# Entry
Amino acid sequence: MSLNTNADRLVTQVLTGEVWPALGDRHGYRTDADGVPFLLPGMGGVTLGVHPGDAAAGYAADHLEPGLSVRHRDERANMALQFLACVGNTVTVRSGPATGVTGRVIGQHAYVLADFAEEDLAGVCTGDQVTVHARGQGLRLLEHRGVVVKNVDPELLEALGVETGSDGKLVVPAAVRVPAEAVGAGAGMYSEYANTDLMGAYAGQGEDLSLGLEGLRIGDVVVLEDQDHRYGRGFRPGYTTIGVISTGHCRLFGHGPGPSTILSGPSGVFDIHLDAAANLSTAFAGSGVSV
# Structure
């Protein structure tokens, strides 16, 4: 059954930002979990060649941010962008050679991350202005009041196949179950801000660090077990959080591919259907929300 929500009572707010450059300093090297120094591309700028459906791990990169990394120069306006932009929202480039092209928010990290078609991304430069049609915060599932919804456009939620089952539970297709011990950086933070880093996907760094998550893909819908993200992020047995992978792997200990939270509540209200196709790429294609 389709979801009964308050989507008709939501407003859309047009927010602005710009494509932020990759940043560094003269102390360029960082150290991985085994003490090995590295210097790799990662956060910020325009990142080509990685989109929802592509692998999240295995690149010669560190904390990869696919597509555009967007923020606002004013700190308070940037916080509004972080808190109000939702996965699935439309992003439009408003300056530079790529003016007019549109993409979609795929999650939050240090920046709001937006995916575009590869040929459109290639025309975008750091400093280009963008708008985000922010819609989704405040969304409620009227028949599943134990579940808190955040960071997701209501149209995308249904495109992901989330629905009410015949037994009254919330059916959620998901690609991967993630054990609680994989949750790293991001615990204790607001779940509307940035994302949750998952340990155990340190590709090529030894079997002792593996939690079987090296196969994660950008855009995968994941189930975070024993995680309560309703009013923050923390370990709580008997609770389940659903997220969408928005960033790639990281060599820093305690960090890794990161899901942005979209649903959280008591485990008993969810009916999880494991499905390898549970990914933003499938949802975007199936809903006509293409990039």
Notes: The mean pLDDT is 94. The first strand starts at residue 13 and ends at 19. The two ends are 28 Å apart (CA to CA).
